[in-house]
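Please, structure for the following, as tokens.
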Amino acid sequence: MILGEEAPATRGTTMLRRIRLAATALTIAAGPLAPTAPAIADGPFQCPPDAACLYENPGYTGAVTVLHLDRTPSQCASLPQTVQSGINNTPYFISLYDAPGCSGSSRVALLPAHSAKHAFPAPMRAYL
């Protein structure tokens, strides 16, 4: 071997270089396809059309429960959290109750079709 000359590559070394090159190329190519964190909204959550959005706090703030209804609710359903405001973009009337099970409740909030309520009279826990 002459000084300053590289040693001839062995088959294993050549194969390893090709694998590294392929892995690098795949990593670069897949970069833009990787999921990214959702962007932080500048304003309040936008309730989708044909959905009802129920918010944890008054003024359409806090965690959001989105209901996708294909008909008027016929059975009581508990909410995953209490809600204090809502937007109804559906053609259906929604009744909200301050007690689980929609019974024994003295406070009810009504959310007519295509309407919004900035604040319910009390935290609501179920809907029908």
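The mean pLDDT is 76. The helical segments are 11-30.
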